[in-house]
Amino acid sequence: MRTQSWRRSRAGYGENGCTAKDVFNEKSTVLPVGNSTLTDLCELQNPEISETCENLESSYVVTDIEDKQRRRNNYCYGYGIDVMAKPAGPFLVKIQSCCWVNFINDFGTLIGIDSPKQERNYLKLYPEPYVGILDYEDGDDDHDHDDDYYEVEYSRKRRAAEASRTLTEGNPSKKGVIPGYCDATPVLIFPSPAAGSTIVFNKKVVIDLKAESKNGAIKRFLYSKPRGMDCTPVTREGSVTCSWTIEKPRFSKLVYNFCFWADDIRGLTSERRCVILYSGVSDIFSMIEFYFASSEFSANSFRDYGCAGTGNMKFSAPTRGMPVDRIDAQINNWKQCTKCALEGETGDRIGYEFDERYHECSDEFGSLAHSLCSCDRDFVKNIWKIRDDFNTDFLNLPSSKCVPFAPSFRTNAKGACCQSTNGVFGWYNKEIRQCCENGQIRGIGEC
């Protein structure tokens, strides 16, 4: 699976390019992409294997379009899903494409298509100002029959003269001050996810994006996103919310790319930022969604629940008092289990492998990933047994309603972690209990 970005006129949707109708109908490319091909080249990595692996001629489905710019700067953004036979051994897949980037000179004349170019610059330094636009000249026809390089030279005298009168806010300026908005590009800010981050979800994911610009309002967000993802219009604050619910095959794990960027009212563009969407069970929230997919519970059901559920499943948040019910007690047990598993680590971006078919933690027993998975699985299984105890009156419970722990328990208790045979950690007071060899916690002398 991969995101696709193709110039609209050469995107495989005919001469007029992709349209809003193609996006609505989730139409696949009907012509070879870029009027050429997009090929997955498969290479086996073991030279001793005589078999080969299959190359694929790929296609994609357009999900978003850019149609507000000049024709050559409009794009089709889409998503391609290819299925290939499992190779006989270790393999490497290379993506090869052709003929979609047009090299155009100052006069709009096509000078090359997706062929490597080599720049030559025989320029000297002069004290006079020069304009920042370069001319692209064809190579020497007598010696460059395959057109593998072109020359670059400074622009003509007319442009250099015009450059000495820099425009400020649309008016000629003799001071040569560059308009301030030229450098004030939009900036992606919180809660926009960090570039390269992984967002784990089971079936539904909601992503909040926000941008700001010194030039004024954010005009729009643009995306290269999976099919079916919907994004709200931009608010006055420069925010949007994108949501996506997928119907994935049972017991499957899918990985998607999601890219986004913003334009302000000046037409300037922010950085293009991409994240990974991982559809599988890999953290506490996706574990909750997996186990409670057919119930009223969701990943946010335990936010600020009782005295232990400060925040939303934040293991590091302090428990404000004695648990108010069995649900609250399980949240506290999960927090202690997670702390024991991490042994002082932060837990940031630590995922695990979970077998959705057999409900088993797949990482090596004793590893950090396996321990975190065991804590999460134990929590949801126990919550399922007592799900009828859930009481909405305990949501957003004021601290004044939490009964403090006994002073002796808070100050004198010497806690320790005990790992059971299934990988789950329990916390106990070493002064009155002990961890038995079978992983059970008993009173001192009762193992």
What does this entry look like structurally?
- The protein is of the alpha+beta class.
- It folds into four domains: 1-100, no CATH class; 105-164, no CATH class; 187-279, Immunoglobulin-like (Sandwich), CATH 2.60.40; 290-443, Phospholipase A2 (Up-down Bundle), CATH 1.20.90.
- The protein is 14% helix and 28% strand.
- The protein has six helices and 27 strands.
- It has helices at residues 20-25, 157-163, 284-291, 326-342, 368-385, 407-412, and strands at 2-7, 38-44, 56-57, 61-66, 75-80, 91-97, 102-104, 110-113, 119-120, 134-137, 150-154, 167-168, 171-172, 187-189, 198-201, 204-212, 218-224, 230-231, 239-245, 254-264, 273-279, 354-355, 360-361, 415-419, 425-429, 433-435, 441-443.
- The strands form ten sheets. The protein has a four-stranded antiparallel beta sheet, with no helix packed on it. It has a four-stranded mixed beta sheet with strand order 15-21-20-17.
- Strand 20 and strand 21 (273-279) form a beta hairpin.
- It is globular.
- The model is unreliable at 33-37, 98-108 and 111-175 (pLDDT under 50).
- GO terms for molecular function: phospholipase A2 activity.
- One of its GO terms (biological process) is arachidonate secretion.
